[in-house]
Amino acid sequence: MRKAWALLALLGWLCGLAPAIAQVSLPADLTQRELVIGTRVAPPFSMKNAEGAWEGISIDLWRHLAERLGVRYRFEERDTVQALLDAVTTGQVDAAAAALTVTAARRQVMDFTQPFFATGLGVAVGRGGATAWLPVLRTFLSFGFLQGVLTLLGIALLVGTLIWLFERKHHEAYGGPPLRGFIAGAWWSAVAMTQAGAAQDGPRTLPGRILAVIWMVASVVTIAVFIAGITSALTTQRLQGVVRNVGDLRSIRVGAVSGSSTVDFLNAQTVGFESYGLPAQGLRALKAGRIDAFVYDRPLLAWTIQQDFPELEVLPITLDSQNYAIALPQDHPMRVALDVTLLDTLRSEWWTRTRLRYLGNDAAN
């Protein structure tokens, strides 16, 4: 009986201790003043509703964290990513909540909380149009396609040569000078292979006829396989789009947002690009045909295109990998408390519902 009471007492003590462990206190100066939280328009992570109030995944997350930590705050908007980062590094704001990617360069001049969203870079292109045919052209100019054509041509010439050797003494069409006979054999082989019409001047010798039958049957299969391969390649290319990997970006005109993590990635991959101040500016340039592709954070890109640019589409590829987090000035006293509260929040049903509300089926990350 005593053991049972002792066990119950221990459980009660642990239950009472758990909230104390989860609760991290903030310095008094942070709870007594109004914090300044920088943000910028980056839907669906931070945006303004019809009434002009801020909302979005990052905004709702910050509100949830601030409520749990018991701090007062106000939002201050910045126009660009660089302006928001500058506000953090210079201490103009206590934190920045938007769609900020954690990078090595940024980490040298500011702090970040634990990441709350994992994503990557997306590539936007025109839906159809001339650019969409670049993959098809690339297929016809590829080494694999050329190799297939030359192989098929080589087999046809080999069969034509054998027909000429078999028939040159028994068929006047293949007699005379060697070049004339060779051309006649190659022509008959090509006509028989492509089934372009009834092959004239067919072989008369037994070896020639046996070879002709084998070649006509084999050519049907060969042509069918060749056409199927080309069709599959073209279909795959069209589905994948003008860009399949980062190497394809080097051969087209690319756009990116200046000051974003996309710029760092493109520079590291030696990809040339045109800079734009805002995503919408780059997407308008893409729509107008001044660039062939626009690279930006995938969820932001998909949201903007869905809302305002139905003529564009995001390709089914993801370049690089990115983590979004809340940015803080270096050595900010709120960092530990934010991390503990954030890690607890990311395991909650509230966070699941929040992501589903803004991202729907794309909420998983």
From TrEMBL:
**Keywords in UniProt for this one?**
Glycoprotein, Ion channel, Ion transport, Membrane, Receptor, Signal, Transmembrane, Transmembrane helix, Transport
Compartment list: Membrane
A Pfam family that the UniProt record links to this protein: SBP_bac_3
Transmembrane domains' residue ranges:
143-166, 178-198, 210-234
Please state every residue range assigned to the domain named Ionotropic glutamate receptor C-terminal: 34-353
Give the membrane topology.
Multi-pass membrane protein
| Chief place where the protein resides | membrane
Residues in the signal sequence:
1-22
Q: Which residues form the Solute-binding protein family 3/N-terminal domain?
A: 34-362
Q: Which InterPro entries match?
A: Ionotropic_Glu_rcpt, Iontro_rcpt_C, Solute-binding_3/MltF_N
Q: Which domain of life is it from?
A: Bacteria
Instruction: Provide the protein name.
Output: Transporter substrate-binding domain-containing protein
The species is Roseomonas haemaphysalidis
